[in-house]
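pls design
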């Protein structure tokens, strides 16, 4: 139930109502869940702190308390999710000034990351170990993502009419809601709506596999689908092939990494992956880009040293 929140009311109650008014129905379910999780932490950490009592020192104490349990990037997300509501509270006269100004974001050191992508030799070994039967199975999905870089939800949403074999492209214009089981959903962003070029081998294989299937039904989905199921199959295939286990999302990273190492431009990789901007691509694959830049520097110096 909503009621007017005053300066003396708990900030966590103001934040709860702010989510209802501004976020419910306006953001994706997965994003809304993040706001609700932030709300639950407010109820744990500052259940009775009034709106007017959230000054700079109280806000910093809140961030510090949250940082004791989370990595720095997670604390940064927490900070950003709160800031929008706080700025609105300032605009509404419920706070005298913005307490988030000059806030210091701390956090636990990041955990050691698992291997996120395979090199070309490892990917070849993995694909050679797949059980590619005459009927569509999860191994075919693994192959498709490895060769296209599609997100898991995008690959699940593929229907026969999305394959344009004459033009050698795959149309990506929707996703499949495997988390809630509600069916087709919009893509992550407008940039995710795209045409992805596919190779001739994939064209020949899938033209046979999808023959006779309903044009507008997903080719891989038959009942509820769980990310963990496909990740489990992929892990077993990786172990069988003698390569480091990766997730289905790791196949997308593998695809992008191989393109970058092959010399494909960041702009082209960003478009193929459906990133909203090249900044996302640069941030995600910074380590690879830096490695390529070091190679470029070596190439430049060798070229210059040859000049007389």
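designed seq:
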């Amino acid at each position: 139930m909503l009621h007017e929140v005053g300066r003396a009311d708990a900030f966590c109650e103001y934040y709860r109502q702010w989510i209802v008014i501004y976020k419910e129905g306006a953001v994706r379910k997965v994003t809304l869940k993040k706001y609700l999780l932030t709300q639950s932490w407010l109820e744990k950490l500052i259940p009775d702190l009034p709106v007017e009592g959230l000054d700079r020192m109280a806000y910093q104490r809140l961030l510090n308390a949250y940082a004791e349990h989370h990595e720095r990037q997670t604390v940064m997300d927490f900070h950003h999710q709160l800031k929008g509501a706080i700025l609105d509270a300032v605009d509404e006269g419920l706070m005298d000034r913005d307490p988030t100004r000059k806030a210091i974001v701390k956090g636990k050191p990041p955990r050691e990351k698992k291997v996120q992508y395979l090199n070309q030799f490892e990917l070849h070994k993995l694909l050679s170990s797949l059980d590619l039967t005459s009927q569509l199975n999860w191994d075919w999905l693994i192959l498709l993502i490895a060769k296209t870089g599609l997100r898991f939800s995008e690959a699940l949403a593929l229907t026969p009419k999305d394959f344009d074999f004459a033009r050698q492209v795959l149309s990506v214009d929707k996703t499949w809601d495997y988390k809630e089981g509600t069916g087709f959903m919009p893509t992550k962003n407008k940039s995710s709506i795209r045409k992805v070029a596919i190779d001739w081998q994939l064209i020949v294989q899938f033209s046979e596999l999808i023959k006779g299937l309903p044009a507008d039904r997903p080719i891989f989905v038959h009942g509820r689908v769980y990310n963990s199921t496909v990740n489990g199959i992929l892990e077993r295939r990786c172990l069988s092939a003698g390569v480091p286990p990766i997730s289905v999302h790791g196949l997308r990273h593998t695809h992008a990494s191989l393109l970058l190492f092959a010399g494909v431009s960041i702009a082209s990789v960003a478009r193929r992956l459906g990133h909203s901007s090249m900044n996302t691509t640069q941030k995600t694959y910074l380590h690879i880009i830096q490695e390529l830049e070091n190679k470029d520097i070596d190439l430049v110096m060798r070229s210059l040293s040859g000049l007389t």
